[in-house]
Amino acid sequence: MGVNIRAQETVTKYHSTVDKASTLIMNRVFAPWYWPDWLYYSLPVGKGFKSAIDILHGFTKGVINKKKAERQLQNGYTEHENEDNELDIGKRKRKAFLDLLLDQNAKDDTPLTDDELRAQVDTFMFEGHDTTAVAMTWALFLLGNNLEQQEKVHEELDEIFGDSDTPASVKELSQLKYLERVIKETLRLFPSVPFITRKLTENVKLDNYTLPKGISVTLAILLAHRNPKVWPDPMKFDPDRFLPENSKDRNPYAYVPFSAGPRNCIGQRFALLEEKIMLAAILRKWRIKSVKTFDTIEYGGTLILRPCEEVLIHFTPKK
């Protein structure tokens, strides 16, 4: 977001509150007696959920307000001053997501309200750390269980980076085709968000059944990604499923780790790039071996498909 949050206690409280809110949401989903708002928010569990949401919204509002204050202080910074700085010659200053939102808001005839702006930032704050972290955990776990595929990753990394210790450039990251397929296959087996919901805007007929307009439908991404009619031997870790020749005839909705359509994840390209950067940095230095296997690891979903136990991995230096 382009804002430096220095208080570790504040960040930790935000993260723990995200976990609490996620658990409470899932508990409500599977408890129909909690569905009526008037009942839910009159009970201790509902009051606890409201308190958690207030904390999350307060954190996000604080980030937005701090960014707005920083922008006001920079109003005196002129283009002429920027041109006089020789270090800036030939460089394009990249803006943070929140800056882009506020810039667009200033231009629009119908700008986002404060609540709408907060909702956009909420999405990036929540989905921008938890989902990516768990996806990288699963990728390392799977590579630690599939040493042949891990060796292919090391060969690709060695070919592109050699003995260099410099951080990966954008061009080099784009060349990591096999690592990209590893990430995609990880998200097939362990989609960070295992299900989504959609409210129907029209009647939908499925075989002999009609789902009426106005109801909410839950779509199980995890089950779709493990459907043997679409994915042969679905529990096998095989990054080559995503080779162009193996993907060309596949239904585009068979693989939707970031959802699909007009309400898909707006940060999916950023998430994939972030995962590639982190995994490349780790695997350039280490070989890994998982302690538990795919069949023995326990995992489950709140809003995020996460392990229910510690993921133990042995790290061995490559050099």
TrEMBL record:
GO terms for molecular function: heme binding; iron ion binding; monooxygenase activity; oxidoreductase activity, acting on paired donors, with incorporation or reduction of molecular oxygen. Heme binds at C265. May be involved in the metabolism of insect hormones and in the breakdown of synthetic insecticides. Keywords: Endoplasmic reticulum, Heme, Iron, Membrane, Metal-binding, Microsome, Monooxygenase, Oxidoreductase. Its cofactor is heme. The lineage of its organism: Eukaryota, Metazoa, Ecdysozoa, Arthropoda, Hexapoda. GO terms for cellular component: endoplasmic reticulum membrane. The keyword Lyase does not apply. It is a peripheral membrane protein. Belongs to the cytochrome P450 family. It is found in: Endoplasmic reticulum membrane; Microsome membrane. This is Cytochrome P450 4C1.
